[in-house]
Design a protein that fits this description.
Structural class: mainly alpha
Radius of gyration: 24 Å
Helix content: 55-70%
Number of strands: 0
Number of helices: 15
Length: 305
């Protein structure tokens, strides 16, 4: 939302309809990345299995070559991903594949087998579904999430994936936790939107933020009277614009949730000084809006918030 809003105000030809299309395209690209990264762990398992076969077919294989540890390549959670119909169908439909990136697969495999977590996993005599599933969680959190190699490959493929990796991996971890040892090939993955209301929220937040731009900019100026608004980072202003839009026009969203979300967002797009500034301006704006009776929250636990 923030990036699309930035693009809207940076463009000479501003169209809310086109910006809305761009927003939903961006969201869909994140969903592509979600499936693409799920497929990555399967690719690494395939690579590991191929290495085992090559060693077994050597002219003079060692005893270790002939009797390899197959705990990773037979990982029970990976087997579930392999057979998952939704994942397979999505990858086939979108033609998403890691086939053109064998160097990345090899590099990630080497990083994995040299890690302490792999050594602990592969040498443990314990073999259970939960043990297998937890190891895949660790792969995403401790290898994929911090891999510069993955970032470089993704940036080459799509400008929409630059800032999405951390968020998408957090959704993948939630997905993994939904699986259990009885999950079959019809186990559902995360939907593109939680529900229809989720999609409507994205659309309405964008439109209401743009339509009420002048009113919100006035509020920001009033509550940043000790600052030269022209010198405030544009991205900081946009974050405050979105937050104030939620304060005023989304009665079902608690103001505390809005504050927390945009302060968290500022950690990625602002300096520490800017974060404190955003927090202070939003806090002052919210207090004044409440005094003026302009904050009208409705729903369970929200009346009189």
């Amino acid at each position: 939302m923030l990036q699309v809003l930035y693009a809207y105000y940076s463009s000479e030809e501003r169209s809310i309809n086109n910006t809305e299309k761009e927003l939903f395209f961006c969201i869909h690209k994140s969903y592509d990345l979600y499936h693409y990264l799920l497929a990555l762990v399967i690719e690494i398992a395939d690579y590991a299995e191929n290495r085992i076969e090559l060693k077994q077919n050597k002219h003079l294989p060692t005893q270790e070559d002939l009797n390899p540890n197959t705990k990773f390549v037979t990982n029970l959670f990976i087997q579930q991903l392999r057979s998952n119909r939704q994942l397979t169908a999505y990858l086939n439909q979108t033609k998403l594949s890691w086939v053109n990136h064998p160097e990345l697969i090899r590099e990630l495999y080497l990083i994995m087998i040299e890690s302490e977590m792999y050594e602990s996993y592969i040498n443990s005599e314990v073999r259970s579904y939960m043990d297998d599933r937890k190891f895949i969680e660790k792969m995403f959190n401790k290898i994929f999430l911090v891999s510069e190699e993955i970032c470089e490959v993704l940036e080459e493929q799509s400008i929409y994936w630059n800032d999405d990796i951390e968020f998408v991996i957090s959704v993948i971890i939630k997905t993994i936790k939904r699986f259990n040892e009885l999950s079959d090939s019809d186990q559902r993955l995360m939907p593109l939107y939680k529900d229809d209301e989720d999609r409507v929220f994205a659309k309405e937040l964008l439109r209401k933020s743009i339509i009420n731009h002048d009113e919100i900019q006035t509020l920001i100026k009033v509550h940043s009277s000790n600052w030269d608004v022209d010198r405030i980072a544009f991205m900081d202003i946009l974050m405050m614009q979105l937050a104030i839009t939620e304060f005023l026009h989304f009665p079902s969203i608690p103001t505390k949730v809005t504050m927390n979300e945009y302060i968290e967002l500022s950690k990625f797009y602002s300096t520490e000084k800017s974060r404190n500034f955003i927090n202070g301006i939003l806090d002052k704006t919210l207090k004044d809006l409440k005094k003026e009776g302009k904050i009208n929250k409705a729903g369970r636990g929200l009346v009189g918030e």
